[in-house]
TrEMBL record, chain A:
Keywords: Amino-acid transport, Cell membrane, Membrane, Transmembrane, Transmembrane helix, Transport. CDD domains: TM_PBP1_LivH_like (cd06582). GO terms for biological process: amino acid transport. The keyword Transferase does not apply. The lineage of its organism: Bacteria, Pseudomonadati, Pseudomonadota, Alphaproteobacteria, Hyphomicrobiales. The keyword Cell membrane applies. Coiled coil: none annotated. This is Branched-chain amino acid ABC transporter permease. It is found in: Cell membrane. GO terms for cellular component: plasma membrane.
Automatic annotation (TrEMBL), chain B:
It is found in: Cell membrane. Signal peptide: none annotated. Keywords: Cell membrane, Membrane, Transmembrane, Transmembrane helix. PANTHER family: ABC TRANSPORTER PERMEASE PROTEIN, HIGH-AFFINITY BRANCHED-CHAIN AMINO ACID TRANSPORT SYSTEM PERMEASE. It is a multi-pass membrane protein. It comes from the Bacteria. It comes from Methylorubrum populi. This is Branched-chain amino acid ABC transporter permease.
């Protein structure tokens, strides 16, 4: 039993990290209806910039600030160059544009900062911690706490601030939002900048776990099932979806893996997502789309 | 209306309505076939066969398969790599377990099996629409790759995950040399493309376009929507499956699930975006672009920078240029190079 709990808890902690990446998607999706495939590339770009700076003895806080500035610049550029010309195009077109964007960001990051694996030490110890009957890694706990804090901060930001209210207005009805004077380009750039910040946090946490390297971009592939399960438009959904995928992955790997020959986690989340799509296409917390002819 | 809803109708938005059934310019096509079947075999070197012509033709076929599903019927798919893998492994097993079957029959059989798998993968399309379809097709991509890596029966319990392909023999002729593999590829591609052209112009093809341009409207006027979607998945996966078998047998010489990963699916997607969604010739133009650009970039960077950039940096540059081109095409020329060429031809007249 304690083994089961340990696996479950480890999976849930990993799930918080998935949720963190998924929230970056939800923000952009709500504001512009874009499934941003480049989120993974943004995670890589942020982590690479940060680690390149700290390796040149730039202090942590300054490296963080510079990286944030890079991500904000990127956000503004994306809004100008990619999103604005593609206004009102189909969702799949926008998705393919972000696919192209992810190639550009990945290529540019690796061209400028190299493709080798970087160690990233955030100064968080990785010791086993006993909580009741189960043992957890202290790093995972800290990472989950940081992710949780960020999630709460984002929820407050979008609940209480002007940008948050405008965002919800745009998500509800872009034309009405435009007509009362909400400036869509500014909002898009702001949302991409926040997504860049989320990518930075995710990049640091994931990067410290598995090294800063190209495989960081694959978190995007884990985030898609999270979003399908939770719903594309809900931050709560992203969190719950992340937890479900994290726990499901961990349990499937342990209990299904030996029966099926291992590495079940490459597709398990997608299998789960397809089941959700068939039963509840809008996800657990998503808004039900109404079709008009 | 939120953007998500405005665009749920999928690929139809933002493109010119009702493309006419593919016009065939008979003279141009005859010339092209003469070059491909006569002039090239007289002049091409092994390098041309192996590095350019064979991969170009096969990727054009893979793109053509995706174009049937996505360009003509509007059903988004990121599973092209998986369908290619099914075609390759199915053909391999047919050759292995039924050695009496001639190669073309095994190749067609591999295509049909891939089509059947495509049909199953397409089943969720009856409930899920537009963009969300990338989820089940991605699930298929990962699951199928995993199955071929895990289940030894498919690779005849080979110890290495890359199994070497059997010898290519048609009617007693050994086709293992580059020219033979080119002939096999070219003949298969020509036959399949001709079939696809017939299909696209038929009632089935018209149903596909009707579903793509307005699913609800199509259903109202009596187009069998479910049948159209499933047949599009079947046809697209079958064509991609044959491409996969050729990729394994005529190009790589090994059957390896890793050569049919998600990147291959993306590549097929790029081919039809750059070449032209809903255009058969676009698949070929896009494939030429995808195959030639990296080669050109490599030569260019060698010429300009004198080899001062290592291979990794060149491939990073290629990623940047590819990504930028995709965004550029989506913004400036949503109907792809095929539409651009068509316009140029009309202006020239």
């Amino acid at each position: 039993m304690s083994f089961f709990l340990e696996t479950l808890a480890g999976g849930l902690l990993a799930g918080v990290m998935y949720a963190l990446v998924a929230i970056g998607f939800v923000l952009i999706y709500k504001a512009s209806g874009v499934f941003n495939f480049a989120q993974g590339a943004m995670v890589l770009c942020a982590a690479l910039t940060f680690v390149t700076l700290t390796e040149r003895d730039v202090p942590f806080w300054l490296a963080g600030l510079i990286t944030l500035a890079v991500m904000v610049t990127l956000a503004v550029a994306v809004e100008r160059v990619v999103l604005r010309p593609l206004v009102n195009r189909s969702q799949i077109t926008l998705f393919m544009a972000t696919l192209g964007l992810s190639y550009v960001i990945e290529g540019a990051s690796q061209f400028l900062m190299g493709a080798s694996v970087h160690e990233l030490d955030l100064g968080i110890s990785d010791l086993p911690v006993e909580i009741g009957p189960i043992q957890l890694s202290s790093f995972d706990l800290v990472a989950a706490l940081a992710a949780g804090a960020l999630v709460i901060a984002l929820a407050l930001f979008f609940e209480r601030t002007r940008i948050g209210v405008s965002l919800r207005a745009v998500a509800d009805d872009p034309q009405a939002a435009l007509s009362i004077g909400i400036r869509l380009p500014v909002l898009w750039a702001a949302v991409w900048a926040v997504a860049g910040f989320v990518a930075l946090v995710a990049g640091l946490l994931w990067g410290a776990r598995q090294g800063v390297q190209f495989s960081l971009t694959f978190v995007v592939l884990k985030a898609l099932p999270v979003l399908i399960i939770g719903g594309f438009t809900s931050i709560t959904g992203a969190i719950v979806g992340g937890l479900i995928v994290g726990a499901g992955d961990a349990l499937a790997e342990i209990y299904l893996g030996p029966l099926l020959g291992g590495s079940v986690s490459t597709w398990f989340a997608y299998g789960l997502a397809v089941v959700f799509l068939l039963v509840r296409p809008a996800g657990l917390f998503g808004e039900r789309a109404i079709e008009r002819v | 209306m939120p953007p998500a809803l405005a665009t749920l109708s999928g690929l139809g938005a933002g493109r010119r309505p009702a493309l006419p059934a593919v016009p065939v310019r008979t003279a141009g096509l005859a010339l092209l076939l003469a070059v491909a079947f006569v002039a090239i075999p007289l002049t091409a070197t092994d390098y041309w066969y192996n590095a350019i012509l064979i991969p170009f033709l096969i990727m054009a076929l893979a793109g053509l398969g995706l174009n049937l599903t996505m360009g003509y019927a509007g059903q988004a798919s990121l599973g092209t790599g998986a369908f290619m893998a099914v075609g390759a492994y199915a053909t391999y097993n047919l050759l292995l377990r039924l050695p009496d079957l001639p190669l073309p029959v095994s190749l067609a059989g591999g295509g049909l099996i891939a089509g059947a798998v495509g049909l199953v993968v397409g089943l969720p399309s009856l409930r899920i629409k537009g963009f969300y379809l990338i989820a089940p097709t991605l699930a298929a991509q990962f699951l199928i790759e995993w199955i071929f890596n895990q289940v030894g029966w498919f690779s005849n319990y080979a110890t290495s995950s890359a199994i070497s392909a059997p010898r290519l023999v048609v009617l007693g002729h050994d086709l293992s040399n580059p020219a033979g593999r080119y002939a096999l590829t070219l003949t298969s591609v020509t036959v399949v493309a001709a079939l696809a052209w017939r299909l696209v112009g038929s009632q089935t093809g018209r149903n596909w376009r009707a579903v793509r341009d307005g699913e609800t409207a199509a259903a109202v006027i009596g187009v069998p929507v479910a049948q159209a979607k499933l047949s599009a998945f079947f046809a697209g996966a079958a064509v991609s499956g044959i491409a996969g078998a050729l990729w394994a047998f005529a190009y790589l010489g090994t059957v390896d699930a890793r050569s049919f990963d998600l990147d291959r699916s993306f590549q097929a997607l790029f081919i039809i975006i750059i070449g032209g969604l809903g255009s058969l010739s676009g698949s070929f133009i896009g494939a030429a672009f995808i195959v030639l650009t990296p080669i050109l970039l490599t030569h260019l960077s060698n010429a300009i920078l004198g080899g001062s950039l290592d291979g990794g940096q060149v491939s990073n540059l290629q990623r940047i240029i590819f990504g930028a081109l995709i965004i550029g095409f989506l913004i400036k020329e949503p109907n792809g190079l095929a539409a651009l060429l068509g316009r140029l031809r009309r202006t020239a007249r």
